């Protein structure tokens, strides 16, 4: 499964660095059929997803990945499921928030787009 | 997405109650192609997965679900991705462990089996 792991690591590196720099630049990673569940809200399609992400109530944010695990999700296409756990530093807070996020990546040419995206904060 | 949510809730209720009672009884939920990532180890196929789960180093365990979110994972079959976050009470410990787990459920007849299963403890 090395290939899937490599793809997943490249994806999350790009995804979170983009997220932390300028969330609106994530637009090309989603499609009209993409789904985002962010805490208790659901969003369908790249436009709605980017609107949601852009309007999250913080100015600066930094993702620190603790673990990431990938598996192939299909026997017919090279799609990949990635589970990420980590810490979210919001507006420079000294108390980072724990999060879990799963991505379902669909291959398209040489790259991948996000079909499923579920984000949850983990409260103790 | 109500249908997916209902399926996911039924699945996790059965899965965790079975896990907490007798882990070997989870066997019918996996197939030869099923994958489990449990912390840093990977296991392929129902037999290997049940062997791993059965040999986990605790006697009693209780899962307490905090959140669960489901999305359809395909446009051609009724497969479902479920992200669960919750607490794991091991051997009656007063300090439950936080966990995140993602399941990828594949329909077969009237039921579903687990193609992908990724489990991670979340350390603060």
Automatic annotation (TrEMBL), chains A, B:
UniProt cross-references to CDD domains, sorted A to Z? NTF2
Q: Name one GO biological process term.
A: mRNA transport
Write the record's keywords in alphabetical order, separated by commas: Cytoplasm, Nucleus, Protein transport, Transport
- Write down the Gene3D superfamilies for this protein, in alphabetical order: 3.10.450.50
Question: What InterPro entries does this protein's entry cite?
Answer: NTF2, NTF2-like_dom_sf, NTF2_dom, Nuclear_transport_factor_2_euk
Q: Outline the extent of the NTF2 domain.
A: 7-121
Q: Does Transport appear among the keywords?
A: yes
State if Transport is listed as a keyword.
Answer: yes
Tell me what this protein is called. Answer: Nuclear transport factor 2
- Originating organism: Thelephora terrestris
């Amino acid at each position: 499964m090395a290939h899937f792991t490599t793809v997943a690591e490249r994806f999350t590196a790009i995804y979170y660095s983009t997220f932390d720099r300028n969330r609106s630049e994530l637009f090309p990673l989603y499609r009209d059929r993409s789904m985002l569940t962010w805490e208790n809200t659901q969003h369908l399609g790249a436009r709605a997803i980017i609107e949601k992400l852009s309007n999250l109530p913080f100015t600066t944010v930094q993702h620190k990945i603790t673990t990431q695990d990938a598996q192939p999700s299909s026997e017919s296409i090279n799609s990949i499921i990635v589970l990420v756990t980590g810490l979210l530093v919001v507006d420079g807070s000294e108390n980072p928030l724990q999060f879990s996020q799963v991505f379902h990546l669909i291959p398209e040419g040489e790259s991948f787009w996000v079909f499923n995206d579920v984000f949850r904060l983990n409260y103790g």
